[in-house]
Structures are given as structure tokens and as C-alpha cells.
Specification:
heterotrimer; A alpha+beta (490); B mainly beta (166); C alpha/beta (535); A: alpha+beta; Rossmann fold; Dna Ligase, domain 1; D-amino Acid Aminotransferase, Chain A, domain 1; 8-stranded antiparallel sheet; 5-stranded parallel sheet; C: 535 residues; alpha/beta; 2-enoyl-CoA Hydratase, Chain A, domain 1; 7-stranded mixed sheet; 15 strands; globular
Chain lengths: 490, 166, 535
């Protein structure tokens, strides 16, 4: 096993990785930008190296500085977390070339899976079902014609994209040219790669993904599926495992497809194969994420494993830690992503200071956080500040535990989605497991904050007034007999 | 209303005032009276508040002139202005264009001193994958540009000041 | 302390008769007060609204802490003067609470002759500043006045207690370390300019506020310079150039908000520590007072019944209950404050006068403020009482009362005649506050008594000159005297002339006294000491 690790990330995932690394006896090194100097991952690491950049996110994308830090402090392996450089093939390559083990797949696999078009072709070859699609190869005019062939509605995507950027749904031919232009523009801006492609858009689809871990030599284990259908703005906010109301045969079929794909690529380390599940039961390969996912803890809870530990063991050449038969699903787990945003204002990101932070003490609740009380939440980074993962004997138990934990989770000082997550979990359709990626749009009205009634309003305003020093003084510091005489006039 | 404190909730102004302190505390909200008692702190930041016989756990914290309140298991954001600022705001509008969400400046399309017409795009900002034009609200001239390209800013940040109207 | 045992039968015909009578008096009082406060010619209201100005009471309500009382003084000042042209004497004065601090408010009412000062206006303002001095109360001036009412200048300008006294009092307050704030909502012209200039802090409203020694018309007449009020003495001139005012405000609301914030910077007063007990409402309903006070000034009633409806828990520790029984003396609490009470229960005899003098000394020894509840026809006359030295016994009571170092308060509950007024701390005796009930009467003697006396004098005169006695002439003297006395003895006349600090609905007495006692504790007690008692 390694003696030291550099975690090239920040926030909750950096903390998460270091927790396991520390438990395994590794010396932890991390990096940070000045804006994060008070962040928990800096405090948690045995050593934190400052990276310099004008824009904070650029620091965590600076390959040279990160490698220099790893070399200088003799990190034996490097964990990229998710986001930032985690799916950057060139980075993975550079890390390996520096003689440092990259805790992730081979760089060529990253490159392959990072390209929507090539990964799709690879899936077709591996016998994994893909949705009908067309890739832009020539002129926009030609692409418009090809795309229209598939039929509407269509989903237009950036070829190099992810995270919902450069994505749009087109419902008729007239909208198509504009949508392509917009997608191309955004793709260029975000990924420096303007290529886009179109695929059949499935109404009321479910997003099902399979966690896999490979040894890089063709051996692959799956850790069953996760349901990630509850999304806002194409980004997941609630994930769970197992997927509700998924027939066992279909589950097996999907997991087998994922293993097949990963094995075909000689996939090494942890990865996730994402599928779109049609209401009819058809499923199509979406993409493969060549890294640890945000939502990995639900799998950990249900399967009773530590995926980071598995990642480190694989990276250290110890091989896969489990036989497939060892892995079973036990109970149910739900993850809620805690984001600083305004759910009732189009989920716009919110900034401020996390002045009060109280973590839930409910049994079965796990909070993977990357913030501490008092921390400034700026627009510089992603709005997700933590994840609440709750386990139950069954799905209802997990929902109840999550609701209880959300109620106990207090994050005050910056707008956040805690109440909104509670509204989703409390919704009948969620309880029934009737999920699809349009869940939030479909139930937008139900999920909007309840109208504040007169009683609530009075209580809120009174609570607010009693929080104002001048008002308190007016209420409580008025001397007698003035206080008792009241508003008398003679 | 005399001596009322002004709060904003859900975009509406509300007035809270003291009606009576003894024998019970009575506060009025928009002219409607409510019996109130504070049972004291449950922890450093949490108090138990009773309004018209219903009890609530209340957590409060400030973010500039907004108070975040968690009460009865729900969180709300309430705006508060002290009496002097509130009176000043009532007296006249201001000439500063503010960011209504946090984001990054994509580009600046005006310069200090430039004459502008209502509707001119003065700046483009980006937030949450959306580019938003900051548009001149009226004819006039630019006094000061507070941010530059690639700057990040918080909600409510001053972006551009216009010369006050004569 | 034992509770007073009331003997009032609220279902008796006498109670109901008195109740109806006094309710009617209070309704008349309230109607007059309402008119004085709010009845204005429409053109004056329109003019103020046109300038975006609030009525002075609105300003006061916004300035005071919400849900706290305001003890207004002399709301019916000048109600029988100037043909009713100056209701409330054109100004509002009183004690209230701003940011938890007791303050004296002095507000001009520009809806009355532009807030001009009538002679009684000056008297009322001087009185309120006297109260501020005596009780060390910070003053907030709400300025909006055209200055002296020129047609009556001789009655308001030159003498010791006329307009100059206002500024003298302001300077004295400042010298004593008592703070003053001026909020300038309108014009402060001529004398009005000195009020902010003599204040420690001043806030002026841009656009409507202006301060100048001579207004635009006077300047034009004197020098030919043509200038607007704003140019001459507006907010910008005084806050940016002259330094006469401290804070500009864009609106009246802002001026009030700034004013409140200024007051919140002031140190909390240190009061002297009068014994205070938990507050207890009177056991007997103060509303009974209407049925206790007789409808005839000559009818006697037991003042213990009045005490029972003013003091905490209706509890009263009576001193010398069996001696000098026409003067009730004893201790009670009002709004928790320990107080000594002297209340008339008949004419003052030698023993009651001696008891009163002794009890006043006891209160001074114990640092207990004294409340005088007046219903007095005077000290007993006649050979027997002169022989017992009624004059020197009355003098002892006056000596003790004047020598008191504790605060004194007086309520005119019914009659206040002759030297009894003096012994019981009438207006001349520097009581901190003096209030009148609507039924009360005040005079050197009763009206009928005076008419009889003057008719008797006239008769003797005629007899001495040997002239024929014309009964019609004598009747004329009687009627004229009675009429004049009736007019001048009424509580309305007294309050019009600012002989008191205002008329009170009897049920409001407890609140008014509570605030008065509270205010009085701001001024440290003087040294003890008396003049010579004649034994």
C-alpha cells in the first residue's frame, strides 16, 4: 500500500478521500487556492500546498502546479476526486509519467470514455444498447437533415460535454438549427470543442447507473445500480440505491451490460456506466464516468463497502477486493445533495456565509461535507457544499430517515435547498417511486415553497423582529412604569 | 404606523411594532396583534418562541441586511432595513445597477463617462450557465464601473453606477 | 399594607347620579380636547399636506417608542383665551419615552397660525422647560414655528417669564448637562432660530426646514435682498456652510429616524433610588371615581375612596388615623413607587394642620415623594381657632411643605380655596406636576362666599357714607361677583391660563402620577432643611 497520497481536489470529496486514506495509514497531502485557505479539506490534510491562480477554480486545474506539489512532497499516488482534472486524460498521463500512481483508469480509457461519440461507438461494438443518434460530421445543414431523420423529440448535446452544459431538447424541425448553434457555442466555450451530436430523446426517462470497479486486466465487479433520476437543470440532486421498482431481471441485464462495457475497455479502478431507462424497459448507454461519482456513498451504504479504499487497493496493484458474489444489496440508501442555491428562483446559486451549521445526529445518517461553520460560500466554486446520505431497512425507512435528518440539518446564512429536498422526499410521487428525469419539472408546483399563510407570516416576522437588536431593546429594555402603562395618551 | 420596524418577506413589506409589553408581550404585524413570549435559549443560537399559543424553534443569522430564519422546520429569508436607511430609500431611488445573482463578468460594453440610452447593454454577466445582459434602465451617463471582465461578484454587488439625474 | 375598605355602593342612586354627572363632564372635556387637537381650518390642513408635512401629533407618535405612553401637558391651554384662536396654545408639550429614555417633548403646531407664539404659548413652553430643569429631562424640540405673534408682543416678549425665558431655560439645561435635540421640520424664525442653535444636536429636513433670524420678508424690508427661505436658511446652508445644524434629512421620517438614533447614543440617566415594590393594579376600579366625586362643589366625600382607586392594590398605610381627621395622611405605592399622600377630608383645623406638617417632615426624613389630593375650603376661621393659633399652625404646614426636598405632586380633585391651596401645594409651591380634574374649582374663596362678602362690604360702605341702600344695586354686585368667580374658578379657566399642567380624566390620574414620579427621580434630591416653624 502507498504511504502517501495527494488529493487534487477540494470540498467534500477531498475530505471524503482523505478520511479513508488516513484510516488506511496514508500521509495526506492536498492543494488549495487562497480562497479556500480556511476550508476543511486544508485543515484535514497532513499537508496542504497552496496553488496560485487569479481565478480560484483555475488553481485546481493547474496541472503543473499540482504535479510540482506531488513531486515536492513525495506523493506516491494521486486521487483526482470528481470534476476538475478527474477526467482529464492528459493529466492522468502526466501523473503516471511523473512516477505517481493515478487513482483512476488508464489515460486512454479516460480519453475514450470522455468522448461521447467514440464511447458510443465503443459501446455499440461491446454490444451495449445505445439510443439512435447522429453525430455532426459535416455542415450544419447536413447535420440538421441527419438529426431530423431520427425523429423528434431530439436531445442535442456537446460531444465533449457533461454536467448538462450545452444540452437542449428539440421538439420540432424548426427549432433545430437554433438549438444546434447554441449548443455549438456553449460547447466551444466550455470544452473548447464545438462538436455536437443529436440522439433520440426519451420522454419520462429514468437515469440508472451502475457502479463498477475493474482491475485493468479485464476483471470487473459491479456494485449494483443507482437511481439518479431526480435532477434539476440536468444535474442530479437526489440519488438512491437500489433503484425503486426495477425488475430483478432488468437490474441484472443493466448491470451485466455495464460490466461488459467496462471489461471490454479493460477498465481499471472505479467508474460508473450511465444508462437511460425507457418507461417500456428499454435501456440505452449514456456515458461512462471514469472517476468516483458524487453519489458513490449510496452504493457504499447499501453494499457495505468503502469505494475509496477499493480505489486505493486497485491503484496499489492489490487487485479487486471482492468477488462478485460477495457483493449484495442490503436495505436502501438515499443521498441528498446540499446546495447553496435558491430553489424558488430557478436554482440560482447563492452566496454568503454558513453562519450556523448543525449536522444531523439521526441514526443511519451520514453527512459528507466540505464546509465548516462560518465559511464563506462564494460564486467561485460549485454550489454543492455537502451530501446527506441516509440508510434504511427499506426505501420507506430511508426516506423517513432522510426527512428526519434534513430536519435536523441546519445551514443558515446562505440560501440552500434543504427545505426543497425535504419537499421532494415528502412528495407522494417520490414515495411511490414514480421517478423520471422530468420529476422536478412535472411536480414544480407541488415542490414550490408552500404559500406562507397568515399564521406563519406573523411568526416569521416576529422571529425576525426579535432578532433585531434595536427591536429587542425596544421590547425588553423599556423601563417601568412605561412598559406597564403601554400606549396610553391623556 | 408609529415606531414600526420594516421587514421584507416574499417581496412584500411588512411592519412589526410593539403594542404592549405588560402583562403580556403583544406585537403587531401589519396592524394585527399577536401574543408573544420567548421561552429563552435552547442553545446558543436557538430560541423557543411562542406566538398566539403556538411554539416554534427559531434559528436566526444575518447576511448583510437579510436575516436567515429557520422556524418551525422551514427556512426563510427576511430583509431588514434600519429606520434611517428605510426612510432614505423611500425618499428617492438610486442610480446603481446591482447584480441580482452571483456570477462572473463576461465583458463590459461601456466606459466611465459614456452617454447611454435606456435599453443599451452595458455589461454581460454569466451565472448558472446563463449569460445575462445588464441593461441601462434610463438615459444618462456612466459614472463608474465597479467590476471588470472575469471578476466574480456576489448577489447584490454594485456593477455600474450612473450619474445621478439632475 | 392593608387594603382600604371601600364603602361605596355602586348601585345607590347617589352613585349613579354622580356617575352620570361626571361622565358628562369628562365627555365635554374630551370633546374640547379633541377639538383643540384636531379641529383646524381646511386651508391650514391643505397647506401642510401640500408641503408634505405631518401634523405634530403624527411626528410625536413616530418619535416615541411604540406602545409607550405620552403624558401631554396643558392640552387645553388657551382654551378660554384669544377667542379660541390658539388651541392648546399652538404647541404640544409632554413627557414620553424615546429609545428607552424619558424625554420632554416640545412641538410647535404649525397648523395654528404657522406655529406662532402667543403669550400663553410662551408660558406653556417656559413651563415645560421648567419641568425639564426641575426633573433633569432631556428635551426634544420639534421646531416648526413662525416666531412670536407680533400683535401681542408686549405680552410675550419683555418680562422675566416671557419668551427670553425659553432660551434662558435652554441654556440652563445645557449648563446642567441635560441634553437637547432639535428636529427642524419647518421654519425656525427669529426667536425660533435660537431653539436649534441652543440645542446640542439638530436635524433639519431638506426642502421644508429652515432656520433664520429674519425671514425672507424681513430681509427684503431691511436690506432689499431677495432670497428664498431655502437659500436663506435651508438644510444645505446650515449643515454644509454655517454649521448651525448637524444632520440633513431628506424627509420628516428620516429626521425622526436620525433623531431616535441620536437619542440612543445618550447615556442612560441615573435616577435616585426611591423604594419600588412590584406593581399592582388598584383593587377597586378607578372607573368608580365618577360615582364618588359629588356633583356639587359643597358636598363632602371621603377622600379614602379616591385614594383606593389610584394606588397599588388599593393599599394604604394611614398615619395618625384618629388625630386631625380632616386631613388624611399615609403611605401607598403608585406604579410601584413609594409615595406619601396628604388628602383633604374637610376643613383644615389646628390638629389637621399640625398632623400635615409632621407627616410632610416624615416623608422628607424618609425621602418619600409627596402627593397632595386637594379638596379644601381652607383653614377653619372663627375666634376659637384664631385663639388656638390656626394661622401659625397653617404657617407650619406651609413651612414644612415649602422646605420639602422630596418631589411634590398635586391633583385638584374638587375644591381648592383660600390658604388651603397653599398648604396643599398649590401652583406657587414648586410642585413637580399639578393636574386638575374637570369638576375642580379654584379661587381665593368660594364664589357664593365671595359674592356675599363683597355685597356685605358694599352695604357697609353705603351705610358709612349714609347713603340709601338700593337692593337692586346690591343684587347686581352679588350677581356680577358670582358670575366673574364662576368663570374664573372653573378648571377650564385654570388650565387655559396654565395654572396647572393640564386637565385629567380622573381615571387617568394613576398613569399621570406614575409618569410624573418616574420623571422626578432623574433630578438628585436637594439637601434637607426648613425655615423657622412658629410654635
Amino acid at each position: 500500500m502507498f504511504e502517501s497520497i495527494l488529493v487534487a481536489n477540494r470540498g467534500e470529496i477531498a475530505c471524503r478521500v482523505m478520511r479513508t486514506a488516513t484510516a488506511m495509514g496514508l500521509r495526506t497531502i492536498t492543494v488549495f487556492h487562497h480562497a479556500d485557505r480556511h476550508a476543511p479539506h486544508v485543515a484535514l490534510a497532513d499537508l496542504a500546498v497552496e496553488l496560485h491562480a487569479d481565478v480560484p477554480t483555475a488553481a485546481y486545474l493547474d496541472v503543473e502546479q499540482i504535479l510540482a506539489a506531488a513531486r515536492a512532497h513525495e506523493a506516491q499516488c494521486l486521487h483526482p476526486g470528481y470534476g476538475f482534472l478527474s477526467e482529464n486524460a492528459a493529466f492522468a498521463e502526466a501523473v503516471e509519467q511523473a512516477g505517481i500512481a493515478f487513482v483512476g483508469p488508464q489515460s486512454d480509457v479516460i480519453r475514450l470514455m470522455g468522448d461521447k461519440i467514440h464511447s458510443r461507438e465503443f459501446a455499440v461494438k461491446a454490444g451495449v444498447p445505445v439510443a439512435p443518434s447522429v453525430t455532426q460530421s459535416g455542415s450544419v445543414k447536413q447535420f440538421v437533415e441527419d438529426a431530423a431523420q431520427i425523429g423528434f423529440p431530439l436531445l442535442i448535446k456537446a460531444s465533449a460535454g457533461g454536467g448538462g452544459k450545452g444540452m437542449s431538447i428539440v421538439r420540432n424541425a424548426a427549432e433545430l438549427p437554433d438549438a444546434i448553434r447554441t449548443a455549438t457555442g456553449e460547447a466551444e466555450r466550455y470544452f473548447a470543442d464545438g462538436r455536437v451530436y443529436a440522439e433520440r430523446y426519451i420522454d419520462r426517462p429514468r437515469h440508472i447507473e451502475v457502479q463498477v470497479v475493474g482491475d485493468g486486466k479485464g476483471e470487473v465487479r459491479h456494485l449494483f445500480e443507482r437511481e439518479c433520476s431526480v435532477q434539476r437543470r440536468f444535474q442530479k440532486i437526489i440519488e438512491e440505491s437500489p433503484a425503486p421498482q426495477l425488475a430483478p431481471a432488468l437490474r441484472d441485464e443493466i448491470c451485466a451490460a455495464a460490466v461488459n462495457l467496462a471489461a471490454s475497455a479493460n477498465y481499471r479502478n472505479a467508474g460508473t456506466v450511465e444508462f437511460i431507462l425507457d418507461p417500456s424497459g428499454d435501456f440505452f448507454f449514456l456515458e461512462m464516468n471514469t472517476r468516483l461519482q458524487v453519489e458513490h456513498p449510496v452504493t457504499e451504504m447499501v453494499c457495505g463497502v468503502d469505494l475509496v479504499e477499493a480505489q486505493l487497493r486497485v491503484a496499489a496493484g492489490e487487485g479487486l477486493p471482492w468477488a462478485q458474489a460477495d457483493i449484495t444489496q442490503n436495505g436502501h440508501a438515499i443521498e441528498c445533495r446540499i446546495c447553496c442555491e435558491e430553489p424558488d428562483n430557478d436554482f440560482r446559486p447563492a452566496t454568503g456565509a454558513a453562519q450556523i451549521l448543525r449536522l444531523p445526529e439521526t441514526e443511519g445518517a451520514r453527512f459528507d461535507g466540505g464546509i465548516r461553520e462560518g465559511q464563506i460560500i462564494s460564486a467561485a466554486f460549485d454550489s454543492m457544499v455537502g451530501k446527506l446520505i441516509c440508510h434504511g431497512d427499506d426505501r420507506n425507512g430511508a426516506i423517513d430517515a432522510s426527512l428526519a435528518a434534513l430536519d435536523e440539518l441546519i445551514l443558515l446564512g446562505v440560501s440552500n435547498n434543504i427545505d426543497y429536498l425535504g419537499a421532494i422526499l415528502g412528495h407522494d410521487a417520490f414515495r411511490e417511486g414514480v421517478l423520471h428525469t422530468g420529476f422536478i419539472t412535472e411536480h414544480a408546483e407541488d415542490l414550490a415553497p408552500a404559500e406562507i399563510d397568515e399564521t406563519d407570516r406573523a411568526a416569521i416576522l416576529i422571529a425576525a423582529a426579535l432578532g433585531v437588536d434595536d427591536f429587542r431593546s425596544l421590547v425588553f429594555d423599556t423601563p417601568e412604569p412605561y412598559a406597564s402603562i403601554g400606549g396610553w395618551r391623556n | 404606523m408609529s415606531g414600526a420596524f420594516s421587514f421584507t418577506l416574499d417581496g412584500n413589506e411588512h411592519a412589526v411594532s410593539v403594542s404592549a409589553r405588560q402583562p403580556e408581550l403583544v406585537l403587531s404585524v401589519d396592524g394585527v396583534e399577536h401574543q408573544v413570549s420567548e421561552a429563552g435559549a435552547l442553545s446558543e443560537q436557538c430560541v423557543l418562541l411562542t406566538v398566539d399559543g403556538r411554539s416554534y424553534q427559531v434559528w436566526r443569522t444575518w447576511e448583510a441586511d437579510r436575516m436567515h430564519i429557520r422556524i418551525g422546520g422551514r427556512s426563510f429569508s427576511v430583509g431588514y432595513e434600519d429606520a434611517i436607511s428605510a426612510a432614505q430609500h423611500q425618499a428617492g431611488g438610486d442610480d446603481v445597477l446591482l447584480a441580482d445573482m452571483p456570477g462572473v463578468v463576461v465583458n463590459v460594453q461601456c466606459e466611465a463617462g459614456a452617454n447611454i440610452s435606456a435599453g443599451d447593454t452595458l455589461m454581460v454577466i454569466e451565472s448558472m450557465k446563463m449569460q445575462i445582459n445588464i441593461v441601462a434602465p434610463r438615459d444618462g451617463s456612466v459614472e463608474l464601473i465597479h467590476v471588470s471582465t472575469n471578476d466574480t461578484f456576489d448577489k447584490g454587488a454594485e456593477l455600474i453606477s450612473l450619474h445621478a439625474e439632475d | 399594607m392593608a387594603r382600604i375598605q371601600s364603602h361605596i355602593q355602586t348601585n345607590s342612586s347617589e352613585f349613579r347620579q354622580y356617575y352620570a354627572h361626571n361622565r358628562k363632564l369628562v365627555e365635554e372635556f374630551r370633546a374640547k380636547q379633541d377639538a383643540a387637537r384636531f379641529q383646524r381650518p381646511q386651508k391650514d390642513l391643505d397647506r401642510l399636506a401640500g408641503h408634505g408635512k405631518m401634523m405634530p401629533r403624527e411626528r410625536i407618535d413616530k418619535l416615541l417608542d411604540p406602545g409607550t405612553p405620552f403624558l401631554e401637558f396643558s392640552s387645553l391651554a388657551a382654551n378660554m383665551a384669544y377667542d379660541g384662536d390658539a388651541p392648546s396654545a399652538g404647541c404640544i408639550t409632554g413627557i414620553g419615552m424615546v429609545q428607552g429614555r424619558e424625554v420632554m417633548l416640545h412641538a410647535n403646531d404649525s397648523s395654528i397660525k404657522g406655529g406662532a407664539w402667543y403669550p400663553l404659548t410662551v408660558k406653556k413652553i417656559v413651563r415645560c422647560l421648567d419641568v425639564a430643569i426641575e426633573n433633569r429631562l432631556p428635551v426634544i424640540h420639534l421646531c416648526d414655528s413662525a416666531g412670536g405673534f407680533l400683535p401681542l408682543q408686549s405680552e410675550l416678549f419683555p418680562d422675566k417669564y416671557m419668551a427670553g425665558r425659553m432660551f434662558r431655560n435652554q441654556a440652563m439645561l445645557s449648563k446642567m448637562g441635560v441634553k437637547q435635540l432639535a428636529l427642524i421640520f419647518g421654519h425656525g424664525t427669529a426667536g425660533g432660530a435660537y431653539i436649534p442653535a441652543l440645542s446640542d444636536y439638530s436635524v433639519i429636513v431638506r426642502g421644508t426646514g429652515a432656520v433664520f433670524l429674519g425671514g425672507p420678508p424681513l430681509v427684503k424690508a431691511a436690506t432689499g435682498e431677495i432670497v428664498t427661505a431655502d437659500e436663506l436658511g435651508g438644510a444645505d446652508l446650515h449643515t454644509q456652510i454655517s454649521g448651525t445644524c448637524d444632520y440633513p434629512a431628506s424627509s420628516e421620517d428620516e429626521a425622526i429616524a436620525i433623531g431616535r438614533e441620536i437619542v440612543s447614543q445618550w447615556e442612560q440617566p441615573t435616577k435616585w433610588s426611591l423604594q419600588r415594590d412590584p406593581i399592582e393594579a388598584p383593587y377597586y376600579d378607578p372607573d368608580d371615581l365618577y360615582g364618588i366625586i359629588p356633583d356639587d362643589i359643597k358636598r363632602a366625600f371621603d377622600m379614602r375612596e379616591v385614594i383606593a382607586r389610584i394606588v397599588d392594590g388599593s393599599r394604604f398605610h394611614e398615619y395618625q388615623p384618629a388625630y386631625g381627621t380632616t386631613l388624611i395622611c399615609g403611605y401607598a405605592n403608585i406604579w410601584g413607587f413609594k409615595i406619601g399622600i396628604l388628602a383633604n377630608n374637610g376643613v383644615l383645623f389646628n390638629d389637621s394642620a399640625l398632623k400635615g406638617a409632621h407627616f410632610i417632615e416624615l416623608c422628607n426624613q424618609n425621602n418619600t415623594p409627596i402627593l397632595f389630593l386637594q379638596n379644601i375650603t381652607g383653614y377653619m376661621v372663627g375666634r376659637e381657632y384664631e385663639a388656638k393659633g390656626i394661622s401659625k399652625d397653617g404657617a407650619k404646614m406651609i413651612m414644612a411643605q415649602v422646605g420639602s426636598h422630596v418631589p411634590k405632586f398635586t391633583v385638584m380633585c374638587h375644591g381648592s380655596f383660600g390658604a388651603g391651596n397653599y398648604g396643599m401645594c398649590g401652583r406657587a409651591y414648586d410642585g413637580r406636576m399639578l393636574f386638575s380634574w374637570p369638576n375642580s374649582q379654584i379661587g381665593i374663596m368660594g364664589g357664593e362666599q365671595a359674592a356675599k362678602t363683597l355685597t356685605e362690604v358694599k352695604l357697609r360702605q353705603l351705610e358709612r357714607r349714609g347713603e340709601a341702600v338700593d337692593q337692586a344695586n346690591l343684587d347686581g354686585v352679588y350677581d356680577e361677583t358670582l358670575e366673574a368667580f364662576k368663570h374664573q374658578m372653573s378648571a377650564y379657566y385654570a388650565t387655559s391660563e396654565v395654572w396647572d399642567d393640564g386637565m385629567l380624566d380622573p381615571v387617568d390620574t394613576r398613569n399621570a402620577l406614575g409618569m410624573s414620579i418616574s420623571a422626578s427621580l432623574n433630578a438628585p434630591l436637594d439637601d434637607k432643611g426648613y425655615g423657622i416653624f412658629r410654635f
